[in-house]
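Tokens as discussed.
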């Protein structure tokens, strides 16, 4: 056996405990499933000429009409520069509009236009279809267990971040 083969075997032995660890193995399964769902969503949103970040914005505007750009960025865990890039794309398509905040002349509030609401409804139906399909593989109890676990993880990580915003950050 040459040195390279020996080093590779040593590395494989050192890595084995990590791969054998159920926590690591199951986390990789969650991350992989999440990535594949995002790919499927992106593929299906193409028919609406939308990308997943656009859907993220639109869903949040359905849930929180009149949200500020800053609050939206915080909910989506993105920087203001991302919002500065994405919002004009949606405005150009007449899907989103910014309106002055009656209580603060410096602030603008974000709203879906009627066209934006109609497109959001279609896109949310696509997303809901994907979620219903994949979650039908689990029992209701398993779904609750996964959700409870993921919320605990999110709360734990948000509690350790610099700007811990414990509001629910969902699409």
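Sequence:
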């Amino acid at each position: 056996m040459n040195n390279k083969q020996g080093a590779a075997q040593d590395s494989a032995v050192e890595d084995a405990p990590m791969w054998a660890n159920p926590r690591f193995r199951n986390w990789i399964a969650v991350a992989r499933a999440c990535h594949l769902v995002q790919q499927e969503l992106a593929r299906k949103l193409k028919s609406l000429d939308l990308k997943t970040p656009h859907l993220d914005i639109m869903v949040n505007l359905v849930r929180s009409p009149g949200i500020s750009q800053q609050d939206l960025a915080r909910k989506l865990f993105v920087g203001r520069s991302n919002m500065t890039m994405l919002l004009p794309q949606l405005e150009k398509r007449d899907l989103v509009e910014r309106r002055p905040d009656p209580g603060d002349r410096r602030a603008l509030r974000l709203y879906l236009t009627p066209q934006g609401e109609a497109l959001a409804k279609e896109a949310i139906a696509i997303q809901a279809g994907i979620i219903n399909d994949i979650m039908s593989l689990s029992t209701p109890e398993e779904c609750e267990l996964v959700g409870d676990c993921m919320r605990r993880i999110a709360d734990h990580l948000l509690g350790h971040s610099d700007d811990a915003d414990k509001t629910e950050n969902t699409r």
